[in-house]
Amino acid sequence: MTVPSFMEMYQQLIASPSISALESSLNLSNKGVIELLAKWCESLGFQVEVSELQNNPGKYNLIAKRGEGDGGLMLAGHTDTVPFDDSRWNYDPFKLSQQDNKLFGLGSIDMKGFFAFVLNAISELETSKQTAPIIILATADEETTMAGAQEIAKHPTLRPARCIIGEPTDMVPVFTHKGHMTSAIRITGRSGHSSDPERGLNAIEIMHEVIAKLLQLREELKNKYSVPHFAIPYPTLNLGHIHGGDSANRICGCCELHIDMRPLPGLSVNVLQAMLSDAVAPINARFPNSVSVVDMHEPIPAFTGSTDAALVQLAEKLSGETAISVNYCTEAPFIQQLGCETIVMGPGSINQAHQPDEYLSMEKITPSQTVIKQLIAHSCFEVNE
Fold it and tell me: Catalytic one among 8, 49, 70, 80?
């Protein structure tokens, strides 16, 4: 049972485009990456299940399992990448390029490269000494809707005891993180000629009042909720994008604002949605049906873990790093619904994620390989301490 070398797997994964985007012109299938992983997993003796997402044609999840029964360790990652701006890249995003002791490529650390680490580690462990199931999970559309992970959360028979999600953390275990909500606030006014303001209803002016309410809500969140584990200990609310009107001499009939909110563990998405609705309710009462709030994607809840969990303690011991919390979000809250102890931990730095010339520092390869191999061995193999 063999797989290509570590670098060969890395090269082939990067060379298979798998962009996910809400814009259909940029959105690509991840089928090529899934087919590579399926072939390599099968060569290592895994039983492979590939499924097309129910509501996303051309997007696929993969579950590969070696070993019988429930329990064991699942190693999980997403197969998609963000879009890229070709004018800002100095390297071909779909070619693994080595320069200045760095490996450049789209997905090199976020996060297709993780699968090369995992498969390389498994190939070096003696199959006859495996004592618990090993599962490899590869999901679709993490960078947009997390639809792949949400489908996995409903899987009827997938029951690992532990899961490591290999997002780039520089091999520091992450035991908890914030959630993510993106909402569109749409103002519907009444357009008309600017020379007669009373005959219209200016959506920009209403949005001005809405923004004032949102800034009040932001302060309320900051003062009311806090979790000290986080560098930014309160829920955040960001005004990210706004567009309204079409001409200086017309009363603006429509204005839309996109906001980003990051809920803390213990603060449910439903509560935040209710607070947002309550904030704009007085304006809707004055201007009936003028303000609507729409989720731009399924809200992602916060991930709540514990530093007392056995997997966290094992990861801390093997990496020599203390588990931390982070402000970004991952598929962890959905994977956790399978009932497994879950951490986020993988090679590469989050500082390079979603950046032009994304790269993995080559001096991190061997230490990362060592820790990943040890995590798998301690969870699924006979280990001589």
Answer: 80
- Tens of pLDDT, residue by residue over 231-286, are 999 999 999 999 999 999 999 999 999 999 999 999 999 999 999 999 999 999 99
Please give the single-letter amino acid code of residue 44. L
Task: Yes or no: say if 351 and 200 are a contact pair by the CB < 8 Å rule.
Answer: no
Instruction: Compute the distance between CA of residue 348 and CA of residue 114 in angstroms, rounded to an integer.
Output: 9
Q: Rounded to whole angstroms, how far apart are CA atoms 286 and 103?
A: 57
Selection from 173, 217, 221, 167 nearest residue 329 by Cα: 167
Task: Point out which residues pair with 186 in neighbouring strands.
Answer: 256, 292
Tell me if residue 47 falls in helix, strand or coil: strand
- Spatial separation of the C-alpha atoms in residues 282 and 209, rounded to whole Å: 10
User: Looking at residues 133-155, what average pLDDT do you find?
Assistant: 97
Q: How much of the chain exceeds pLDDT 90, in percent? A: 97
C-alpha 12: how far from its chain's center? 22
Supply the pLDDT for residue 385.
Answer: 61
- Angle (CA) 367-118-312 rounded to 5° is 70
Residue 338 has which token pair? 């399978």
Spot the catalytic one: 141, 142, 331, 357.
142
Active site residue 141: no
Query: Burial code of 146-179, b = ≥16 C-beta within 10 A, e = fewer?
Result: bbbbbbbbeeeebbbbbbbbbbbbbbbbbbbbbb
pLDDT digits (tens, 9 = 90+) for 28-72: 999 999 999 999 999 999 999 999 999 899 999 999 999 999 999
- Phi and psi at residue 378, to the nearest 5°: -70, -25
Residue 111: cis peptide before it, omega within 30 degrees of 0: yes
Instruction: Verify whether residue 260 is a known catalytic residue.
Output: no
Q: pLDDT band for position 1 (50/70/90)?
A: low
Q: Would the pTM of this model clear 0.85, i.e. be above it? A: yes
Whether residue 303 contacts residue 330, with contact meaning beta carbons closer than 8 Å, is answered with yes
SS3 115: helix
Detail the DSSP E strand segments found in the chain: 47-52, 60-66, 73-78, 97-99, 102-104, 134-139, 162-165, 174-177, 181-188, 192-193, 236-244, 250-251, 254-262, 291-295, 324-326, 341-344, 359-361
Residue type, 276: L
For residues 376 and 74, give the distance between their C-alpha atoms in angstroms, rounded to a whole number: 9
Query: What domains lie within the chain, and their CATH numbers?
Result: 6-177+303-380 (3.40.630.10), 181-295 (3.30.70.360)
